[in-house]
Design goal:
494 residues; alpha+beta; Heat Shock Protein 90; Ribosomal Protein S5, domain 2; 8-stranded mixed sheet; 5-stranded mixed sheet; 10 helices
Length: 494
């Protein structure tokens, strides 16, 4: 037996940190939020394969930290293990993200703090070593640029390029979740295509950073139709230290799938907690057995009550006092939903909850994504309208006519109540009503009248259908007969 060389250990470990485009974007967006950014822009050139760039207006990186910025396990966010459960107030804490990104592509960082006279342009090698530092010009903040992502790993690069459209879709859904959880931050996602047919630039997502409250924040990202029947929900769990805020559907509303069930812990997007999700869905089905509620719930507590260091992506968590949380949640949603003359037939015992039970919980089971890397939900970046370089064009063709009648999300014909769903993944065929043309999400701001999505009488197109999330299953389209296929791609003027 031999001990592995350090460079071998480094490659093995860092190759596990960033495995997809959205994983890379997640790490960079969280770094920007930790830096106090109020504006975050994500730029994807050729689906991120040629260039991925995240620009923020945060506080920047101090010059004394430049050399260690991309080395493994170097972080300014904690100094000892106990900080994870006592003083952690940041998204990141392991010090592995930039080291992992260095191993996957060519990393350069341009950063400036308020005390710097000029910005610094930093270049790192694949082991995270600083190889060049030059003066540059930019405002206070940080720009992280990664070129040739995954090119060093042949198999991973081949998979990335082959499924680039789906990876862009997953990245967009990820940013949507962070935009909802951080409504006072201005998010923008821009895609550029410089090669081949239809070169151009499109804004896939843009928020104002001015939303106040969970419902306006969700409406700005997901569209007014998605939150048409939701009501605010506020729960202060006595004796547990937890506060729950957000919004949830009333029984007259809902969706055919669980794609719009979003959960956050201290503003961090997490996988849906299995027991909490089951409790809410089963209680809702006592009033509306056909649909699932829209759920946007944020759990807030002292860091001592939550453990996020469970999985590498930090999306599976332990919640302390979950039994009491379940009891308080059922009491609140029953009061919200039940008519005065009717009480729900199910009790907490139906969901395995015993009042006064244990004070801990197991990890929330990760939701099974219904959108594979090759699914039809992909944003079609090859469908840019013809135009000169730099022209603002839509990268997404019109969805099938049936998709125009649905909420935002991918329609999955295989969805059943038994399946777990990925937030912001699959979609719904429900036909929402938009009250006025002005009630469209920020992502479609500036869409010319000539390029508005059309629909037959009584049908209202979902705003996010223009991004390809309404794409129908090909087999489903064949059943529909002729005349229901996708139309030409509309132009999108940022």
């Amino acid at each position: 037996m031999e001990r592995l060389e350090q460079n071998v250990i480094h490659d093995i470990c860092t190759n596990q940190v960033v495995v997809t485009l959205d994983a890379c974007v997640k790490e960079l967006v969280e770094n920007s939020l930790d830096a106090g950014a109020k504006r975050i822009e994500i730029r994807l050139r050729e689906s991120g394969a040629e260039l991925l760039e995240v620009v923020d207006d945060g506080k920047g990186v101090d010059s004394e930290d430049h050399a260690m910025l991309a080395t493994r396990h170097a972080t300014s966010k904690i100094s000892k293990y106990e900080d994870l459960s006592s003083s952690l107030d940041t998204f990141g804490f392991r010090g592995e993200a930039l080291a992992g990104i260095c191993a996957m592509g060519d990393l350069t960082i341009c950063t400036k703090t308020a005390k710097d006279t000029s910005a610094s342009l930093l270049v790192y090698d694949h082991y995270g070593k600083l190889t060049s530092a030059l003066p540059a010009a930019r405002e206070v903040g940080t720009t992280v640029s990664i070129r040739d992502l995954f090119r060093r790993l042949a198999v991973r690069h081949r998979e990335f390029t082959r499924n680039a459209k789906s990876q862009v879709s997953a990245t967009l859904r990820l940013v949507q979740a962070y935009a909802i959880a951080n409504p006072m931050v201005k998010f923008q996602v821009v895609a550029e295509k410089t090669k081949g047919h239809g070169a151009g630039r499109a804004t896939l997502l843009a928020t104002s950073g001015l939303s106040n409250g969970w419902i306006p924040a969700a409406a700005a990202v997901l569209g007014d139709a998605t939150v048409a029947d939701v009501k605010p929900l506020e729960i202060r769990s006595a004796g547990t230290g937890w506060t729950i805020s957000g919004a949830i559907s009333m029984p007259q509303g809902g969706r055919r799938t669980r794609d719009m069930q979003l959960f956050f812990v201290n503003r961090r997007p997490i996988n849906a907690p299995k027991r909490i999700t089951k409790l809410i869905n089963d209680t809702f089905h006592q009033y509306n057995s056909r649909l699932y509620p829209v759920i946007i719930l944020s759990f807030t507590a002292d860091q001592t009550l939550v453990d996020v260091n469970v999985t590498p992506d930090k999306r599976t968590v332990f919640l302390h006092n979950e039994e009491k949380l379940l009891a308080d949640i059922q009491e609140s949603i029953t009061e919200l939903w039940a008519p005065a003359d009717r009480a729900p037939s199910a009790t907490l015992a139906s969901f395995g909850v015993v009042r006064g039970g244990g004070t801990g919980s197991g990890p929330s089971k990760a939701s099974k994504s219904k959108t594979s890397l090759g699914s039809s939900s992909a944003v079609d970046l090859d469908a840019l309208c013809a135009g000169g370089p730099g022209a603002a064009k839509s990268m997404v063709p019109l969805p099938p006519s049936e998709a125009l009648t649905g909420d935002s999300g991918v329609i999955d014909d295989q969805d059943t109540p038994e399946q777990d769903d990925d937030p912001l993944g699959a979609g719904d065929r429900k036909r929402p009503e938009l009250e006025t043309p002005e009630k469209t999400p920020a992502v479609l701001a500036g869409l010319p009248q000539s390029h508005q999505l059309s629909a037959t009488p009584g049908q209202t197109p979902s705003p996010l259908d223009a991004l390809g999330f309404g794409a129908e299953n090909p087999a489903k389209r064949q059943k529909q007969g002729p005349g229901t296929g996708p139309g030409p791609g509309p132009g999108l003027d940022p």
